[in-house]
Amino acid sequence: MYPQRPPDLNVMEFTVLLALAEAAEKYEVYGLMYILKNRFRNILLHHGMEIIEYAAKHDYPDLIGIMAPQMLEKPLAEMLAILPPHLFGAWVLYRERWEDVRRKAFTIGCFTSLLNLDIAFQGGASAHLDWQWHTRWRQSIETNIKEIPEFTAFLGATTPLPVLIDVDFHSSYRPF
Predict the structure, then answer these.
(1) Maximal CA-CA distance, the chain
(2) Helix and strand counts by DSSP (H, E) for the chain
């Protein structure tokens, strides 16, 4: 250690932050691990998948949970390549709850995403519906979305997945 101030993590390049985080995990520098996890929380939207891979590797499900709604469109095969079995099982259950809401919404309207209902309810397929019914339908969908638990709530709800693939395959598999 040199008698100087530590570097400012807010201006550090992401690749350097990620390398520093990996080193902190390797050498179990718990104070730095905590600081970097919080820093990653602030830049998650800019480096989402890289941070998700880091979070999956080092078992930080709360970081994954923050990005979970934005990852709903990712193919299951891609998520299988990133998440270890205990997180993948929770991911499947979480995604299924969102799919249930989407199926209910699709029975009448045409949605590509449930993350921005303002766009989904602008005219289009739902324009022919009377306004009151339209409002009740939207409120029903919003209620269903609010009832979806956070990703981390599914962690304890999962039963162990059957081992269909060996660990070496899981760590080396990457989708096309």
Answers:
(1) 71
(2) 9, 0
Q: How many CB atoms lie within 10 A of CB 10?
A: 9
pTM for the whole structure? 0.73
126 near 141, Cβ under 8 Å? Answer: no
Structural domain of 160: 76-172
pLDDT at 115 over 50: yes
Residue 57 included in any domain: no
135-175 confidence digits (pLDDT tens): 888 888 889 999 999 999 999 864 544 443 444 444 444 44
The tokens of 21 are what?
């985080």
Query: Per the structure, how many domains does the chain have?
Result: 1
Residue 119 within a domain: yes
